[in-house]
Fold:
Amino acid sequence: MVLPNASAQRAAAVRRLLAVAAVLLALVGGWAMSGSAAPALSTAPVPKAKCGPGSLPETSTQGRVPTADYRSGRVKKGYLCNTRQIGHQGSSGGFKTLRYTDSKGRTCAFYDSTLTVPRDVVSNTLSGDGLGVVVLDMTNPAKPKKTANLVSVGMLSPHESLLVNQKRGLLVGVMGTAVTAPGILDVYDVKTDCRKPRLLSSSLSGILGHESGFSPDGKTYYVAGVLGTFTAVDLTNPKKPKVVYKTGGVVYHGLRLSDDGRTMYVANIGQVGPAGISGAGLRIIDVSQIQDRKPNPKARILSTITWPNASIPQVAEPFVSKGHKYVFEVDEFVDLFSFKGLSNLVHSPVGAARIINVDDPKHPRVVSNIRLKVHEPDQRGGAQKNDPMAWFPAQGYAAHYCGMPTRNNPKIAGCSMILSGLRLFDIRDVKRPKEVGYFNKPVPRINKAALVPAIGAYAMSQPAWDLKRNEVWYTDTNSGFYVVRLTNGIQKLLH
Structure:
């Protein structure tokens, strides 16, 4: 046998190593490519709810109220799936439905009664609803009792800013739409007697207000302005609000805070230009210096993410599920800032909702989308575009507000999805949410008492939850305040 010399041995060894390395690189490279090219998150509709006894299911695709139902009169019955109506009050509504139990154990509901002044002046006067923020005694949910109308300037039309702080019993709102600048901020005490809120202060501290946020400790109220302002107001002494931070050049919407008040989850509208919105998504901000009342505080941006087919980010509600941190984010309408959004609803994106993992605030990631069949482009270009008010960019088949009954391991979420009414979703598996119920009461014909013609559903409000009674409360702009009870087993998701 002839033995190879040392150089030949080394050369053979190198060739073998190169061959092995090539195989490993191919395997690793293939794995890396498959990882980086992982399929995009599904934007298909979530599974449709299975409606049990006593339901009045939809007659068409998920979320749709077809023209045929208006013509036949079917729409008058409404659409119920694993829900039933317990109570009703009034004939109008707005953007927020809030629940609060005061120091004496009395439970109240608060809701703004109009989208914008003077939209519902005539109908609210004729119905007896009155103006501003409506206060209801909810001792008997089957018969909500109106006990007050808050008509101080800030409460006449608080737009999307109305919030109640559970810890301190403060109800706050800002009169600050684009036509009512500079933004009057009103603070009410509801802890003493929620049925009769007491005005503590009215100030100009809600600069150009539109949406808002409240630190859980109730000491800082944040205001997002329609013209690019972001303001923090110190309410340590609610009788003397004090601006402790303000900046410009940002277009923020809903502002929600972590439990310690140090991290803010911002629905970031992004940049608004002639071509419409760009950069819309979620922004996470470190506001610990504001929370700690540092001199000349800074708000440090930790991350900003976007997603395909975003419309107008509305709000991102934080929650924890199985030890992980998430936000439940919802986009409203279509892109109302562009000519395409206003003129071609078929091709304008409907953002709907999504769940975003925020375990690492510097690297958030979307884990699932929550959409109905009516939100899909192929449906928007079909017969449904001719359904009553489907053509109207500020109504239509889109989303507006979502909310959960708790931040700690919620099993269910509720979303006001405008023409599609109140939709209920099982979110126990955050990667695979599914619809479990709905409640929709469209107005069957034009309400002639309204300054703006009212037809169809106009579900815009953040819902509130009564866990003890297995109920969810919300308002429809066209028909008022509803108490809805969950049935057929889905009420178990409240507990």
Notes: The two ends are 81 Å apart (CA to CA). The CA atoms of residues 136 and 147 lie 6 Å apart. The mean pLDDT is 88. The first helix runs from residue 6 to 36.
